[in-house]
Amino acid sequence: MAYKYGKFIAKHKVIIFIIATLLLIPSLFGMLNTKTNYDILTYLPSDIETMQGEAILSDEFKMGGFAYVVVEDTTSKNILKLEEEIRNIDGIGKVLSGADVIGTEIPLEMVPETIKNKLYSDDSTIIVITFEEGSSTDLTTQAVEKLKEVVGNSKLAGITPMLMDTRELSDSEVPIYVIVAVLICLIILQIALDSYVVPILLLLNIGYAVLYNMGTNIFLGSISYITKAISAVLQLGVTMDFAIFLYHSYMAEKQKRDDNDESMAKAISKTISAVFGSSFTTIAGFIALCGMELTLGKDIGIVMAKGVLFGFIAAISVLPTMILICDKLIEKTKHKIILPKFSGWKNFSMKHYKIIIVIFLLILPFSIWGQAHTSVYYNLNKSLPDTLDSVVANKEVAEKFNIVSPELVIVNKDVPSYKLSEMIDRIKELDGVEWVLGYDEFASQIPEEMISEDLTSTFMNDKYKIIIINSQYEIATDELNDQIAEVNLIIKEYDENAILAGEGALTNDLITIADHDFNVVNIISIAVIFVIMLVTLQSIGLPILLILVIESAIFINMAIPYYTGTVIPFVSSIVIGTIQLGATIDYAILITTKYKYGRIEGQDKKEAIEKALDTSISSIIVSSLCFFGATLGVGILSNIDLISSMCMMMARGAIISAVVVITCLPAFLLAFDKIICKTTKGMSNCK
Q1: pLDDT tier at 620, thresholds 50, 70, 90
Q2: Given this model, what pLDDT does residue 558 score?
Q3: What is the distance between the alpha carbons of residues 64 and 62, in angstroms, rounded to a whole number?
Q4: Could you tell me which of 129, 40, 67, 38 has the C-alpha nearest to residue 389?
Q5: pTM higher than 0.90 for the full model?
Q6: Closest CA to 498 of 465, 534, 452
Q7: How far apart are CA 533 and CA 546, in angstroms?
Q8: How far, in Å, CA of 20 to CA of 520, rounded?
Q9: Alpha carbon distance 256, 418 (integer Å)
Q10: Separation CA 14–CA 17 (nearest Å)
């Protein structure tokens, strides 16, 4: 069947290439029309209490997002005029400031200190703005862009403007990531292959696959900015070996016959049988991310699983047509392969396998300990450069107005005022609570008829009342999370359906869910890949050995931040292990499969492993270098630490996996050959 498919591709190469090229048009349309989500907190499960609170704020109070404008002017008349301009922007919910509280009739000196201190500081005041929809919708995005024009040089703070700055920064960097990744891989392939033209064809082929993948994302509705930033380079790094294998197979078949179409048909047939299993394993690794409760994992998992699938399809359909069409040009541009054979590495692994196992066993405990104690951060503000406008503005708001992590308590309107006052007093007594503000505090100090409708509707409607809590503790700290737990206990006493919402509460849930996801995803990925290898290798011992080797490489990679004192973003801690396992298990499968067939054919264990290494080391090194090169550029260039950290760890993981597989796997195969033979189908008679 595979051979017939190969014959069909070779025979109709021109028409297939034309169709493949025409398919880029709808792919480009799909890519350009796929929305990007820049708010990671929206990937929290919709059924948790804090997300339900966010829905109430958005639907009932037009508080889908927040922003703060720091105005260097305390004249109520001017502030009210600016507010009116802001209100006229589509997507703006409410606009509030001290001017709405005191109007133009009451002098600033007469405002009660408890209120004035919250609204004014050092000849500046703050305007609080809410958005009708969530922070990442098109309407809110357009509103923030217009808002920046209206407020001019005034600083714009808050999570919503920060997300917009993240969008601008990320979108400006993504094209650079791709260009750098392509250039690095081009250099690596020129060194590793025997033609100046072939590397260009391989990269062009993957470019087709990337566009197909990005275009079909339109059916997902939207993807995260993290997925958008890393998917192209990750797909390039992970699927390049499919294309290289096809090319090598074709060149080997050409040595046997003069008919190029027949050679390609044979090459396609061999590629399908050899690459299908490894591509399926890689896809399974990415699909394991869909087991995350934080649906960001599903976002990355589905996109990357599609990417591997498109990479495989392109390698056995698009690339063969390119190679056949350009065959004469390939022959004319042949050159000597610069990449060495690494025979010294092979000899070292074979000769010193006992020492290698001892060193492996000595390093392993330190790796396990290090990866288990690597510090992570959940405050997404820390992943952005300090010079970003919104980050600078957030710091000023925190310093001048002590607005660090405001939370909102949503309670039933029927809760009596005296009960709310009692509840507020108890919350005020908690450590770290800067102030607590409800409608009654304004009403008790300022004549009710002078309080604006915007202010009134901010704090209550016909269903709910809102109380604002401002904490001096930063987002995602243990102190704030403990405080959130205490606040939740208090508010539930007065209203069992009360909800604590806000960035701090959402991040607290994010921490809990992320810790759970880390364990679940690792277990799922290992279990799924183990089952696949159990079936494909028809062995019990080999899958255990292979996963042990790759997991040890993952432990080493994840432990490095601990020993270097580096704090990594929480997303990296969850997904890196699964990505590294799925993307680099192929290295181990390649050596193991060749070793297994060699033993079955009657070779002794040393001969089987030597031949497996001879025919595998170069392929593994080229594949790992492409993976390394594709992700390294992003890691170095990205100004968003969330993306930079992930890509640096992926780049490092590719090299570590290659080194561990080439060095340690042969040692284990030699040491446990007897057990492997007894637990592997077809190897029971091996001697």
Answers
A1: confident
A2: 94
A3: 6
A4: 67
A5: no
A6: 465
A7: 9
A8: 39
A9: 92
A10: 5
